[in-house]
Write a structure and sequence with these properties.
It contains 5 helices and 7 strands; from the N terminus they run E-H-H-E-E-E-H-E-H-E-E-H. The protein is α+β, with helices and mostly antiparallel strands. The protein is globular, with a radius of gyration of 15 Å. Bound molecules: coenzyme A. Coenzyme A binds next to strand 4, helix 3 and helix 4.
């Protein structure tokens, strides 16, 4: 994956004030249907959480990424870009930023689950270096869709970060 070019948005930590806007993105993308209180828990209480948002020059939140750091593993917990701003590289930039910061905190591998039919997300994860590692049958409660488990192993993780330099 090529290094990210300079983009007209910034990535910063999510704060409690950002949550209502983030929740609107969740509602519009139906990534995981988290209730608003889950975002408060992640930002205010969960020490393992690393919550990022992409913001444009007007201060509009374009997308978010929630990761859980557990020793040397970084898990992708929730991730979405506002429908009007998709396909402009924002999701990829959020992932690279989150993974870079997590590496600096000691993460060396990453794991995630993705709906088997979510081709845009699977595409991004594969571009980053994640590889399919298994299937959880009927994993999602809303439609019983299968989940694909994907792993970013240490070597691929390091390669991704080296490419950003
Ligand atoms: C997944 C998601 C966060 C990606 O964000 P994004 O900002 O649109 O992503 P980017 O613009 O960085 O990258 C989009 C890539 O997906 C590709 N893509 C878009 N639609 C696609 C499709 N239907 N099939 C395959 N690839 C697709 C684009 O071509 C692009 O790839 P490229 O960089 O090789 O050209 C966004 O689509 C989203 O919010 N989806 C709904 C929520 C969700 O599914 N979250 C993930 C939960 S695991």
């Amino acid at each position: 994956m090529k290094p990210m070019e300079k983009r007209p948005f910034q990535i910063r930590r999510m704060t409690p004030k950002d949550i209502s806007e983030v929740f609107q993105i969740d509602a519009q993308t139906a990534a995981l249907y988290w209730p608003e209180k889950s975002y408060h828990f992640e930002v205010e209480k969960n020490d393992a959480s690393r919550c990022w948002i992409a913001v444009n020059t007007n201060g509009t939140i374009l997308g978010f990424l929630i990761l859980w750091l557990i020793v040397d593993e970084i898990h992708v917990a929730n991730f979405a870009v506002h429908p009007e701003y998709q396909n402009q590289g924002i999701g990829t930039a959020l992932m690279i930023h989150g993974l870079t910061c997590a590496w600096n905190e000691g993460a060396r591998v990453s794991f995630l689950e993705v709906r088997a039919g979510n081709h845009p997300a699977i595409h991004i994860y594969q571009e980053i270096g994640y590889e399919p590692a298994g299937i959880r049958k009927n994993y999602y409660q809303d439609n019983y869709e299968d989940a694909i488990l994907m792993n970013l192993e240490s070597e691929a993780y390091k390669k991704l970060l080296d490419q950003q330099e």
